[in-house]
Amino acid sequence: MRIHIDFNSDEAIYIQLRNQIVLGIAREQLHDGESLPSVRQLAEELGVNMHTVNKAYAMLRQEGYLLMDRRRGAVVHIEVQNQPMDSLNMAMKLMVAEAICRDIAVEELQQIIHDMYLEFDD
């Protein structure tokens, strides 16, 4: 899986990295048990600080997407089913609020979400 960082984005680099890894898992580009590059290696590849990669990996571990293994480093270990839904609920609440502000009907928002789900089935 190739990770692309937009250095001109307003979104923090560690968030971009976290989001791309989650998308990679959802798109089955990353699989359960697969090792990710070491913090140092990925930082060098992306041209970012090691602390940035470490912060993204720590967030993914806390969210249940990664397991830190002493021998293998960061390993995809999907345990998000057991994680609290608080952050997902808040993100969706914000998305619905933005849709309301943009005068998007509930049916249109449901269709957008449905179409996004289909993108991951490819």
Overall pLDDT confidence = 91
Strand content: 5-15%
Classified by CATH, the class of the largest domain is Mainly Alpha
What structural class do helix, strand and pairing data support? mainly alpha
Main pleated-sheet profile: 2 strands, antiparallel
Number of discrete domains: 2
Distance between the termini: 16 Å
From the alpha-carbon coordinates, what is the Rg to the nearest angstrom?
Answer: 16 Å
**Strand elements, count:** 2
Q: In what order do the strands lie side by side in the largest sheet?
A: 1-2
Q: Give the uncertain stretches in residue-range form.
A: none
Q: Could you give the order of the helices and strands?
A: HHHEEHH
Helicity level: 40-55%
* Overall body shape: globular
Folded structure, characterized:
- This protein folds into two domains: 68 residues, Arc Repressor Mutant, subunit A; 37 residues, no CATH class.
- Helices cover 55% and strands 7% of the residues.
- Strand 1 and strand 2 form a beta hairpin.
- The longest helix is centred in the last third of the chain and has 16 residues.
Which key phrases capture this entry?
single chain, 122 residues, mainly alpha, Arc Repressor Mutant, subunit A, 2 domains, two-stranded antiparallel ribbon, 5 helices, 2 strands
